[in-house]
Amino acid sequence: MTKIQSVTNTIINQGVLPLYYNADEEVTLEILRSLYKAGIRAVEYTSRGEAALSNFTKMVEIRNAEMPEMLLGIGTIKNVQQAEEYSKAGADFFISPGFVAEVAEFLIPKDRLYSPGCMTPTEIIEAENAGVTFIKLFPGNALGIGFMSAIKDVFPNLKFMPTGGVDTTKQSIESWFKAGVSAVGMGSKLVSKELMLAKDYTTIENETVKVLEIIQALKNNND
Q1: Whole-prediction pTM
Q2: In this predicted model, what pLDDT tens digit does every residue of 4-47 receive, in sequence order?
Q3: 3-class secondary structure per residue, the chain
Q4: Has keyword tRNA processing (predicted)?
Q5: Which CATH fold would you assign to the domain 3-212?
Q6: Could you tell me the sign of the dihedral formed by the alpha carbons of 104, 109, 115, 120, in that order?
Q7: What is the mean pLDDT of residues 143-164?
């Protein structure tokens, strides 16, 4: 099995991809531990601040020491330089807010999962033709469930994950899965600024467990 397929399977089996950024290294690592304890085995850290690369490097170190099953992805990749930096740092997968052809050309031949954000059929076609197999629908709240339902039959070989606008409720999660997504990305709805500020890692863990249980129940009902 390719590394791309293996990472894809982990995210799809999990059904949710938590994503977050915090400038504080300790907070970053404690959130990672909380997500791992909840049962998460793939997480996206967003490259949105000056501390992102050093924090991510430390995350890889802690992962190697404490959580061998955890896959660490990096988000908000906008150019090849960033992709190279995080590749050297040990990122398992890469996510962009939009499709960057040069990043696809750099990562896919190296058997690294690249999931670009797309919001039009044209962008999805460009990504598919570049070898992308896992599409991030972004922003999910602007596109909506109807968009996913409308396009899924046109792209039978692609997997989709909305990010933005997915709530932690059963109703929200179920509606996206019924529309045809393979997983949902969850940022501030799951790892909120308030919880990070309060360093309330127990609530982050508990909320994540609830989301995983909702997704597992939906999958069991569909089997």
Answers
A1: 0.97
A2: 999 999 999 999 999 999 999 999 999 999 999 999 999 999 99
A3: CCHHHHHHHHHHHHCEEEEECCCCHHHHHHHHHHHHHHCCCEEEEECCCCCHHHHHHHHHHHHHHHCCCCEEEEECCCCHHHHHHHHHHCCCEEEECCCCHHHHHHHHHHCCEEEEEECCHHHHHHHHHCCCCEEEECCHHHHHHHHHHHHHHHCCCCEEEEECCCCCCHHHHHHHHHHCCCCEEECCCCCCHHHHHHCCHHHHHHHHHHHHHHHHHHHHHHC
A4: no
A5: TIM Barrel (3.20.20)
A6: positive
A7: 96
Question: Catalytic site residues?
Answer: 44, 136
pLDDT digits (tens, 9 = 90+) for 196-212: 999 999 999 999 999 99
Task: Say which amino acid occupies 36.
Answer: Y
The answer to whether the beta carbons of residues 45 and 20 sit under 8 Å apart is: yes
Domain boundaries, the chain: 3-212
pLDDT in tens, 69-83: 999 999 999 999 999
